Amino acid sequence: MKKIKVSVIGATGYAGKELVKILMNHQGVELIHLISSSYAGKNIVEIFPEFLNKLDKKLINFNLDVVSQDSNLVFTALPHTVSMDVVPELLKKGVKVIDLSADYRIKDPAVYKEWYEKEHNQINKGLLSEAVYGLPEIYLDKIKDALLVANPGCYPTSIILGIAPLLKHHFVEPEGIIIDSKSGASGAGKKLSLGLHFAECNENFKAYNIIRHNHIPEIEQELSSIYFNENTHKQKQQETEIKVSFTPHLLPINRGILSTCYLALKESKEEEEVLEIYQKFYQKAPFVRIFKPPNLPEIKFVTGTNYCDIGFTIDERVGKIKVISVIDNLLKGAAGQAVQNMNIMSGFPETCGLV
Ligand SMILES: NC(=O)c1ccc[n+]([C@@H]2O[C@H](COP(=O)([O-])OP(=O)(O)OC[C@H]3O[C@@H](n4cnc5c(N)ncnc54)[C@H](OP(=O)(O)O)[C@@H]3O)[C@@H](O)[C@H]2O)c1
After folding, report:
1. How many angstroms separate the CA atoms of 28 and 284, rounded?
2. C-alpha dist (Å) from residue 64 to 35, 92, 220, 291
3. Phi, psi of 309 (to 5 degrees)
4. Sequence-distant (≥ 6) Cβ neighbours of residue 95 within 8 angstroms
């Protein structure tokens, strides 16, 4: 296999570290630069002792010329509103980019500004239409030729994969969708915050940001485009927007997301028929597993893997279908999915380096 040269910006963050762990064992990758502003000059083993005898590499400060000259592809695992300063420079130098932040996921810059409180400059506004939303199960063909991939958020990945077949086949009403998601504490990244201290999370379970979480516009954008058909949707954005009622919760575990989605069936359906459309929709998707009712997925089935496991139950009494979808937020929700995208962009088998 011909190797590509890959660097990671934000290599000491939660998602960045997972990227390094996958890439250092990936047979198609030569891991070149690991970039950190806080730990530049230190060896990665000084920050993560578990890399001893596995990876011997110095972290460096970001230098555009050095990074772009030495790399074919760069992962930017930076906070949102930070990536947008780096990504256009890398692209201008001819480097492919997979950005793990939200900066290129939202197609409408006004919507991004509303939810992330920062405005894109003209160059970045132009890049929004070029960026491919990196959900391989939906956008495989576009990802193959992408120069910039906007890697999806963790909650959106679990939700969109969980209900896409129902929306695509118009089995469910686009109105009144309710989503309850529960995430482990690593979903918030490594920055310190009181609500994430051990004594606050442990033996606790709570809802947060219950009407305004910044993953909402991304979820609504993608569900709308699946239900209404991408092209029609672009023309009629306003009147065809799906709105969801989304409540995130913090679970007292390190990693993993479980999303429960409640949707109204347009007409009564047999479980076999629903199972069949899920199986068909994901027949070529190596990382999506569909559970046959009454089996339901659990977080521990996917921890440490790139799988999204999906199960459902039809609640005939109330005319609803309940879908349960689980992922590891740091893998299928971040680094694993990013490597899946790299594999597709580089002509490697989609599953290369991933479990
Ligand atoms: N955690 C998840 O489950 C998850 C899932 C999906 C997507 N994401 C997205 O992936 C990106 C990285 O997430 P993460 O969880 O790995 O975050 P994180 O743990 O906070 O790491 C972000 C890294 O970015 C670097 N950085 C550079 N400039 C920075 C700045 N101005 N402010 C803060 N950090 C800066 C930091 O490393 P240095 O200080 O060493 O430079 C830090 O380690 C985010 O956009 C996040 O939304 C995360």
Report:
1. 22
2. 11, 10, 35, 46
3. -100, 135
4. 67, 68, 71, 72, 73, 74
189 lines ligand 1 (CB under 6 A): yes
pTM check: above 0.90: yes
Residue 149, SS3 per DSSP:
strand
The answer to whether residue 154 is catalytic is: yes
pLDDT digits (tens, 9 = 90+) for 4-13: 999 999 999 9
Instruction: Assess whether the C-beta atom of 158 lies below 6 angstroms from ligand 1.
Output: no
CA-only gyration radius of the chain, Å:
20
Handedness of CA 263, 265, 270, 276 (dihedral sign): negative
What is the number of the ligand 1 atom nearest to the C-alpha of 102? Answer: 45
Identify whether the C-beta of residue 263 lies closer than 8 Å to the C-beta of residue 179: no
Q: Is the CB of 37 under 6 A from ligand 1?
A: yes
Long-range contacts of 267-273 (CB under 8 A, 24+ apart): 268/316, 268/319, 269/171, 269/314, 269/321, 271/312, 271/314
Over residues 276-318, the pLDDT tens digits come to 999 999 999 999 999 999 999 999 999 999 999 999 999 999 9
- At residue 197 the predicted structure's pLDDT band, cuts being 50, 70 and 90, is very high
Give distance in angstroms: CA of 346 to centre of ligand 1: 25
